[in-house]
């Protein structure tokens, strides 16, 4: 009798599950860069899954001359964020669409100076992880990657 009751309960449970909640995985789109000079890079500037955009890390390179901007952490932070802004704009988004950032500093002592610039770009305060690592690409002082959500 107990087995029959258990079977009936399990059957009722499975029948009550809403299978419409289970959605198929959205198509993954590996977007081409909007910068012709980066067209041979081994990564995408942005990868889209549904309305989520995963942006590759950006550093403080002035793309018009392909060199890091001079002046240290604050000018590099500004340029890095402007580069992120350009990628977002290429996909019809803006900085307010960013929900998560990962920030890598070459020197954790630059945290306060970086934060002064960063907070001027993100009044909505996206989730963030910040840490320091030795040896960023092209000798950069900062790299930032983001996740953005595109409104439909």
What features would you describe in this structure?
With 152 residues, this protein is an alpha+beta fold. It has one domain (24-149): 60s Ribosomal Protein L30, Chain: A (2-Layer Sandwich). 29% of the residues lie in helices and 27% in strands. It has helices spanning 2-16, 73-90, 111-121, and strands at residues 28-31, 46-49, 52-58, 61-62, 67-68, 98-105, 127-132, 142-149. The strands form two sheets. It has a six-stranded mixed beta sheet. A hairpin with a 4-residue loop joins strand 4 and strand 5. Helix 2 (73-90) packs parallel to helix 3. The longest helix has 18 residues, at 73-90. The chain is globular. Mean pLDDT is 86; it is low at 9-13.
Strand content: 25-35%
| N/C terminus separation | 53 Å
From the coordinates shown, what is the CATH architecture? Answer: 2-Layer Sandwich
Low-confidence stretches: 9-13
Largest sheet: 6 strands, mixed
Give the overall average pLDDT: 86
The dominant shape is globular
**Broad structural category:** alpha+beta
**CATH hierarchy class name:** Alpha Beta
The CATH fourth-level homologous superfamily: RutC-like
Q: Which strands sit side by side, in order, in the main sheet? A: 1-2-3-8-6-7
Number of helices: 3
Proportion of residues in helical segments = 25-40%
**What is CATH's topology name?**
60s Ribosomal Protein L30, Chain: A
| Count of all domains | 1
Evaluate the radius of gyration.
22 Å
Element pattern in H and E: HEEEEEHEHEE
Strands, count:
8
